Each structure stands twice: as structure tokens, then as C-alpha cells.
Amino acid sequence: MTYLDLVYYAFFVVVCIQVIFYVFFFGRFAFLKQKSKPPKSLAISVIVCAKNEARNLETFLPSILSQDYPNFEVVLINDASHDDTLDVMEHFASIHDNIKIVNVKNNEAFWGNKKYALTLGIKASKNDFLLFTDADCKPVSSNWIKKMSAHFSNKKTIVLGYGSYAKIKNSLLNKLIRFETVLTAIQYFSFAKAGIPYMGVGRNLAYSKATFFNANGFINHIKVRSGDDDLFINQVASSRNTAICIDTDSFTESIPKKTFKSWLRQKRRHISTAKHYKLKHKLLLGLFYCSQLLFWGLAIVLFLTNYNWPIICTLFALRLCIQFIVIGISSNKLEEKDLIFLIPFLEIFLIITQLTIFINNLISKPNHWK
Description:
Keywords: Membrane, Transmembrane, Transmembrane helix. The protein is an alpha/beta fold.
């Protein structure tokens, strides 16, 4: 057996793995027809943690305060900001009686730790159901709270939502950021539907206060700078207690990074938490990423050597076709249609970027959240 024979068989196995992921996992989300849930009258506490976010709060807080929902409070957490964040919060609180401010000062044991600030905010909230977003996020509709809270039930105490990024015309970086966001959403929604939820995003996430306190909050990973959203969900989520909400009115939209350097810094923090996931989640995610990397690497070798090209072309086209269908339908659901025709290019770029980030994180640790 020659070297190219081994490459050929490896490529066949990799294509099979990719097809299994796209059809049997990601297809659960792509072909899901989620029925609209009737609204509930649950009292909701919206939690917003802000560190040096004065300008963003001025811009985006009104979209939260104007929600069409009868019973909610907004808990604003000032995490030791050194700009006018607290002043902006106090201004809004003076004209809205459903705002509660939690002013957090640096604690020597938890300096720069968002989880400490969030814990104080959760403890200060008065309602039993919590809905989280970031200071640089806005709900895309006035029905955000209504749509997300509708998925709570006696069994479902965690609701995973979608947090999009605003579109910037003629920006390749923006398309890469949004593609990575879509692919991540497809993964965590699909795994949740498969009964193995592993993460959520703090830009749009809800859970009950009882879920938080029964797990002793963030104590199991309090020393990990990031992960107030994904590590917590990885710890407490199960097939029984987790629901997803993909109604377009439930989406939030955030400000994307505008430079590649700042985005890489952000992704370094996010990716650094993955090593703390449960073993089964690390194995699944690692297998998917490795199969992505090997798919392109082995395909390039086989195409350059012209080895058994009819079969290689068939396998290559099969995987791309399935990927286009699954990601295309999913992107349509998430209102990211403009990404579909750039999928191969964006995927290659993202694979290289993630590999670079992984290597950098091995060399040095990323900084805290702000």
C-alpha cells in the first residue's frame, strides 16, 4: 500500500465523519420546524453586566426598556467601570422604575472577574427567571423577552437563544465573524436537540435562578476568566432541562469587532474555555474540527497528485453539497443569507484562524474580559 493509498482511505473516512455531523447532528437544527410557543406571564429579570460601556448603554438600553412585556425588571451591573457607565445607569434609573443598579467595586480575590459581578447581580434580582444579554447588544424586536420566556416550563429551566452580529457592508472580516457565529449556533442548537447541550452565548441566554443556585453558581470555574455563559451551561445543561428558541423575534444583535486583531483577542478568550468542557463535548467538537481540517488538507494533496480523481471529486462534491444544504437552510433561519455562497472560503479561513488561536493559547494565556 502506497502513501497516497493511505491518504485516499483517510480522506474517505474523513468525508464519512463530516457527512455524519452535517446530516445526523446539524440537520436536526436545519430541518427543525419549531412551533411558536404561547406567551407566559412569568416575571423576568433581565441581567446586563457592563464594564466601561457608557456609550453602548446609551445606545442599546432603550431597546430593552421598551420591550412589550408586562412584568420585567432590568438589573444593571456596573463592573468597576472607570468611564461614565454608572452615571448612564443612574440616568436611566431616574426615569424607569423597573431598573435596579448593582455597583460592583474591585475585589482583591476576584479582580477583573465578570463572574463575580454577575453573581452579585443575580443575587440582587427579584425574579425567579433570568434573561442575559450584553451591554453592546440590542434585541431585534420588542418581543424578545416574550419569545425567550415562552420556552420556560416546569422541566425546561434553560433557554438557549441566538446572538447575531450587525452586518457591515463590504467587510470580509464581518462576514468571517458572522460565519463563525452561525456555525457555532448551528452546533450548540443541534447538540441541544440531540440531547447533549454543551454551551450557550451570554448575548442571549436565559435560565432560572434556582438552576444557578442549585449549581452553586460559577464556583466550579470561578478562576477561569471567561465562561460565565458556555462553561456554566456546559456544567448544568441536560436533555431534560434545556430548550432552544429560534424565533427571529427572539434574536439579539451585537456590535462586531472592526479589526482582525481585536477579533482574534476576543476569540482567544472564548476558545480558552473549551478545554474545561465535559470530555464528551471536547471529543465531539475536536472530532468535528479535526475532520474539517483533514478534509481540506487531504483533498488538496489528492487533487495535486491527481490520485483517483473521479472518486475524489465525487466525495468532495458530496460533502460540499450536504454542507451547502445544511448551512444554507440554517443561515436562512438565522437571517444570514448573504454568507451562503462564501461558505468554502470562509470555512478555510476560519479553520486556519482557529488553529492559529489554539497555538497562541498554548503559548500564552488570553487576558480577562475587559
